[in-house]
Amino acid sequence: MVVKIGLLGLGTVGTGTAQILLDPSGRNPLLKDITIHRVGVRSPDKPRSVQFPPEVITSDLKAIVNDPDIDIVVELLGGLEPARSLILQAIAQKKHVVTANKAVIARYGDEIYNSANQAGVYVLLEAAVGGGIPIIKPLKQSLGANRITQIIGIINGTTNYILSEMTTAGADFSDVLAEAQRLGYAEADPTADVDGLDAADKIAILASLGFGGRVQREDVYCEGIRQVSAADIAYADKLGFVIKLLAIAKGSGGQESQTLELRVHPTLVPKDHPLASINGVYNAILVAGDPLGQVMFYGPGAGSGPTASAVVSDIMNIVAILKSSGQTPTLDPLLSCVHQHFCQITPIEGIKSRFYARFLTGDLPGVIGHLGMSFGNHQVSLESVVQIGFQGELAEIVVVTHNVGEGNFRAALAEIRTLEAIKSIPSILRVL
Amino acid sequence: MVVKIGLLGLGTVGTGTAQILLDPSGRNPLLKDITIHRVGVRSPDKPRSVQFPPEVITSDLKAIVNDPDIDIVVELLGGLEPARSLILQAIAQKKHVVTANKAVIARYGDEIYNSANQAGVYVLLEAAVGGGIPIIKPLKQSLGANRITQIIGIINGTTNYILSEMTTAGADFSDVLAEAQRLGYAEADPTADVDGLDAADKIAILASLGFGGRVQREDVYCEGIRQVSAADIAYADKLGFVIKLLAIAKGSGGQESQTLELRVHPTLVPKDHPLASINGVYNAILVAGDPLGQVMFYGPGAGSGPTASAVVSDIMNIVAILKSSGQTPTLDPLLSCVHQHFCQITPIEGIKSRFYARFLTGDLPGVIGHLGMSFGNHQVSLESVVQIGFQGELAEIVVVTHNVGEGNFRAALAEIRTLEAIKSIPSILRVL
């Protein structure tokens, strides 16, 4: 039995996927039973590094999802439309779908999985999070025996590259971003990466799998890294931390009946934490559960080869099921989406965390007392208050709090802003 | 449909497994469809931390593998016999098998998988390597799109704990071993761990999965850590390395037609290598492949909870297949053993690596020249020769070679042993 693939998109990941499928020797023998039946692209005449006969290539993407010969549609277009509509149409035609599209799954997963369950087809997305790192399937399968308590990831390579470079070179955000754009590690419009939106898409997907409920993408609290300065990185270093953009999902009671914390923000990570040493474009995802303890998955979070590796693993998974299932199989409950309800998400005001805040102040002798009073007025207990440097006439003071309610911390800051000695609050970051 | 488990063994891992299965809330909903039908133990009357009705417990292990009501036999006895015979009998009775027994699989995998394929049942062993770290299933499934080039693991927690403690405390092997035994991190008879036998069992299994061929356990070259001294750890540190017991499988061309290197030995690992920072009883496995690059899996390599998590994930996997497959399914080629041939293994003499050797010498002015000559005579090119300290009257010289053939290196050492100035060669280690 040969399984026929319809490939939508022949960009970086599409090309990598085609290269694996066209050159199966030395890989899992199952790959020899897969053929690329049609390839849909926007510009069929564009020169490409992988060659197909002219009759395989088409710009009519709808013809691919409707082609009765195709068993699996592999959507590697990216973006919301036409990707979403094509995925839904492929499902309606009872084709299995493999996608790397985190944006579509994070926003339309509910609609897509309901349709897929009704049609009795799989929608697999190993490539949507963590590039070549196997994380989706382990969360669905190997870790399912656990009550998952936390998923914490460095899941955006661009921002991790920028923060790593800022740390190594002591450079400021805008300079490193320009360099990253020159090297192709950041897009011309870097918004999705640097503002944390891409990481938010991905943690929405991971949380849904780990905590067994659907997640609304807009429930993910999200701060990017534009506000992180070279000064903060240097002060964090003195305090024993590195700054990373973390995506965090936390729950208390495992699957079903619980509320989740879901957030993406730059975070001070203790230097001896396993995530602290993940540098450059690499990704890592730490999963904690009971009785497992902690496991961490580390690897290349993007790029043609790694992402294609994940895409092809999903294709192989479906091919293996097609070859081994007998007549009238139903969907494998470990590979399909079995949960229907939406997770309750704790609003950011209700979350407790440690904070780092940097203040520019005049009138040094009095100001630490005033800061301490204002924090105390709002039950914000402090771990350290350090006068860490000067900027011209002004003193720089860095405060690290204990675990405190976000609401209390914000109320204290509002009071502190009214103090005459406080000239500005250049940065507020969270501490792991 | 409720799936019935026959559990063989109620030691640490058996108890952990029972605890998960008896308390499914908050875990994957599939666990609610699993019941522990019978439990086989050596001493039915022994008090236990998990309770079963008396009719569930038996000391007649054969009755469990022959019980027609049981769907899955979970073998957690450890040791070679009766584990091997019970696994084979369960297979003959067409029961699926889940095991944590690396010793049996590494030695009798060929026999067991042939029987399982003939009977049409699964033998899953996620818990046999890396405790709670998902590594077996990712190697079978998610990474299969790649041509795997290397698998390098820290896969024995006891030796990693001992080496970590020796590094932190500057203590010698025997003192740390005694402490590890006191803490329960090492067995009363530590042979299987400290002589590398356990790690060799595990790398034989990983190599077989990653490189797609069967592996003879006796083909794994194996050195333990008894010869590693506090002095070597200190010198390695000065040279920029930490010493780890690594299990290494290397191939060149992916699956099928290739020869493999397979070895377990203490190794100098550069401090900036991802495996260098894996300390204590933690395990980590690095897998490199094309086009993936490198991924690393990190977590608790042993213990009741983590190992039970892996056992239960295998049980869930089989339950999911039983629930979703239609009539007359065949074995899923990504979960069963599809390869029949044995891998060709390069004998250790044919392997190239970098070496670290420590010499105790007299007559310092002449000896470095003599050492250099002897190595040169056998085409062993040197990276560094450092006189690193004194022991009484004798000088200590540490040599690090470039990548050289094991045979050449040993021939050079044989010549060096005849030099009058060389009093002894206390350690020879490999360098990653």
Q: Please give the CATH class of the largest domain in chain A.
A: Alpha Beta
CATH architecture of the largest domain in chain A: 2-Layer Sandwich
CATH superfamily of the largest domain in chain A: Dihydrodipicolinate Reductase, domain 2
Question: Which word captures the global form of chain A?
Answer: elongated
The structural class of chain A is alpha/beta
In total, the number of strands of chain A is 18
Number of helices of chain A: 13
Straight-line distance between termini of chain A: 51 Å
What is the assembly state of the chains in this entry?
homodimer
How many domains of chain A? The number is 3
Overall pLDDT level of chain A: 94
How many strands, what sense, and barrel or not for the largest sheet of chain A? 12 strands, mixed
Proportion of β residues of chain A? 25-35%
| Helix content class of chain A | 25-40%
Which protein chains make the most extensive interface, counting residues with beta carbons within 8 Å of the other chain's beta carbons?
A: A-B, 70 and 70 residues
Radius of gyration of chain A: 24 Å
Give unreliable regions of chain A as ranges: none
CATH topology of the largest domain in chain A: Dihydrodipicolinate Reductase, domain 2
Describe what you observe in this structure.
- The structure is a homodimer.
- With about 425 residues, chain A is α/β, with parallel strands linked by helices.
- The first copy, chain A, has 13 helices and 18 strands.
- The first copy, chain A, has helices at about 10-20, 60-65, 85-90, 100-120, 135-140, 155-170, 175-185, 190-195, 195-210, 230-240, 305-325, 365-375, 405-415, and strands at about 5-10, 35-40, 55-60, 70-75, 95-100, 125, 145-155, 220, 240-250, 260-270, 280-290, 295-300, 345, 350-360, 380-390, 395-400, 405, 420-430.
- In chain A, strands 7, 8, 9, 10, 11, 12, 13, 14, 15, 16, 17 and 18 form a 12-stranded mixed β-sheet that branches.
- In chain A, a hairpin with a 2-residue loop joins strand 15 (about 380-390) and strand 16 (about 395-400).
- The N and C termini of chain A lie far apart (about 50 Å).
- The interface between A and B is large, with 70 and 70 residues.
- Strand 12 (about 295-300) of chain A pairs antiparallel with strand 12 of chain B.
- Chains A, B: One of its GO terms (molecular function) is NADP binding.
